[in-house]
Amino acid sequence: MEGTTPATARIRDGVPLLEMRGITKRFAGVVADDGVDFDVRAGEIHTLFGENGAGKSTLMRVLYGFHHPDAGEIRLQGSPVSIASPADAIRHGIGMIHQHFMLVNTLSVADNVALGLRSSRGPLTDPGRVSERIRQLSETYHLQVDPQALIWQLSVGERQRVEIVKALYRNATLLILDEPTAVLTPQEVDDLFAVLRRMAEDGKGLVFISHKVREVLGLSDRITVLRAGHKVGTLPAASATRDQLVQMMVGHALPARDLAAETGATEGAPDRTPSDRAPSDRATAIESGPGVTVGAGTPVTPIPATPAAGAGTGAAAAAGAPRLVVRDLTVRGDRGADAVRGLSLEVRGGEIVGIAGVSGNGQRELAEAIAGLRRPSSGSIVLEGTELAGGSPARGRAVGLGYVPEERMRDGVVPDFSVAENLLLVDSHEPAFSRLGFLRSGEIRRHCEELVRTFDIRTPTLEAPARTLSGGNIQKLIMARELSREPRVLLVAQPTRGIDVAAAQYIHDRLREQRGRGIGVLIISEDLDEVMALADRILVMYEGAIIGEAAPRASTRASIGLMMAGVRPEAPADAGPRATA
Amino acid sequence: MNTDLIVAVIVSAIAYGTPLVLAGLGELLAERSGVLNLGVEGMMLMGAVTGFFVSQQLGGPGWAVLIVAMIMAAVAGALMALIHAFLSITVRVNQIVSGLALTIFAGMAGLSSYAGQVWGIGGQHGLHQLTRVDLFGLGEIPVIGPILFDQDPFVYLSWGLVVLVAWYLYRTRTGLYLRAVGESPRSADAMGINVTRYRYVHTTVGGALAGLGGAYFTLAIAPIWTDGLTAGAGWIAIALVIFAFWRPDVLLLGAYLFGALSSLGFTLQAHGVQMPSEFFSSLPYLMTVVVLAGASTTLARRRIGTPASLGVPYVREEG
Cα separation of A280 and A312, whole Å? Predict the structure, then answer.
């Protein structure tokens, strides 16, 4: 609330800004946080580090009044407080930048900032004055925002700045940032970190939630690691190492190669060699991981190795004939504007092509167009001679397209169907599984049991509804279903988003294995580290088109990051697109 | 067509459009908060029967009786809406089911008919009726006089409410918060706005306006009570809100368009134009179908300002 200045001036040395003691929060019997202690001092950046589902966000949502804790105590500057709603949290000087922005898309920046505030004009709004103060804050903290712009017109990075301005406007002394870097380009991340450091220098306390080691080590003063709802420990960032943090996060050591790939520790691509990808090496790496049960024993799929070109070594250079050829594809997005603009790409057998880019640059529409879920307005999508553009999802499937969608709960499974039913969804008409329209339950059971076993899907029974599975197991289920159909081309959108490290590692290994079988794999991911770890060729997507291509080995993060931000790789190309447009 | 006929059509369009303006504004407020209220028809009927009953019972000067009757009609509508608010906001019953249930419960052969029977007001001739008030003696001006300055107080009230609601939505703090609640309750909640309270208040006020709209039938158009006399005006009001893109100014014009269609038959007949009356009486309903079908097409849905959370209950601890 404007006017009620939180006790910024009274920060006492020694007493932490925030103390949380023994916070426990359960959801329908599942413990999200179990007796977690956490504290933040004025002027520090304290990171909450852990996997998805470790309880980081829940802990902070308790602090912000979204969840009521089942046990525990919260103290602000030494005095116990009860925070029953976000309104209480704001009153106590707590601001939160949520993972999913809390902005009203149809309103202006100024209106969004003014939400919930007292106005200087009593019952009337005062957009002029609000805009003025937004401009002041923008200047002080180098946060470029236009107060008059409507939220839906802004990029993701700009929206995040609006969220930060909102918190600053309310004189927040304690700011929580829930995975703020997930949606940003590397350059935007640098800008954000500069802003955060400036705020810490101003004496504010910051809580940074992340699961990316590299960022955490670079930004934090202290790091608290959570695992499965428990606090593993708190350590000063200065003395923490990458290996130590990852070990604390997952509870055991990871093989070095995967550690780099799964936790975003890749710096450029220093430790990658061609032999890195040799199947034998891969198997060794998995087995050397003590306690990593998921990959134990190189899995045997029910798929016979396709005797296609490029199979065998799995070396990227040996990629075979083009399997998926996309030419001048234009696809309209939900808002009516073109989301994909004249995009062309090619995927060969035995290679992994990775599409990198900041979310919202047409990746979703591209994936949906290839999968047959969205009708392109022009261009062609050819899978080994069959035109897919304008067809149905069934046509793609018939000629060997496997599709693992981005929204796995919405597009990948029927949440209330059982694991077995979901495994069979697209194949129920196959003679092996149905006779005269009746399903053959014995065959189906055998088939499903085999898939569950080979793909290590952790489910109590085949009858359990898919929605009860964890994200990682749902992804494995979808992978199992798609791969059991022996695809020629596999399209995977956001392969490991929101999935725990072990499952992500497993899925990455499976994707590399498909390459080894000669399948053409196209992955679309907003996680640059993932693309760099998996792909043989990286295509960077910007505003609906491929802005540049990079080989992961030769490229550095920075040059790919520049392309993600819309900077074309070769400067002289400047005249080209303008002239033709 | 001569000028007299045009003026007559417009004047009767306003008369028949006024209950739609009132009920439509009420629905607009509820929907702006994210609550779809399909109980409008039932609330209008309750307002109509309550208003008429009160006006028949009370003694005293006519204007005072009518004011009390209007207030009681609004209270009846508000109470009904409170039931809808409780069911859809607190208990989180499906809003469509709850609204339909209320319309069936209070509608024809339901509570409003029962009340009419118990109170014995069926067939009674009304003792009070709102009459035209010639504002500042300007009603004599040709053409615009009868349209703008010679209407009953209800019409003036509805115009005032349109201006008030527009000002409220776009110029006041609470109006801004209301729009935020309807668009993104989670964001509004995160900024410390009480989503539940906003939804309750606006649904209830919306019901009060629906009650007033219903009372216009029995206190102004014709002082008589018959079962189901609103004849679907509540449904037209709901269609109207969509037609108006959730904007009060467009809603006023839309209401008069529907009003004109409703009254066209009588007006033309009175002026000697011969057309089957069934054709005219079907026009507003036909128009309702056209509007709803048009609004449902994807293109229209992208362009118009449907509150994004319309019909979706808000639960803080989910998601």
Answer: 11
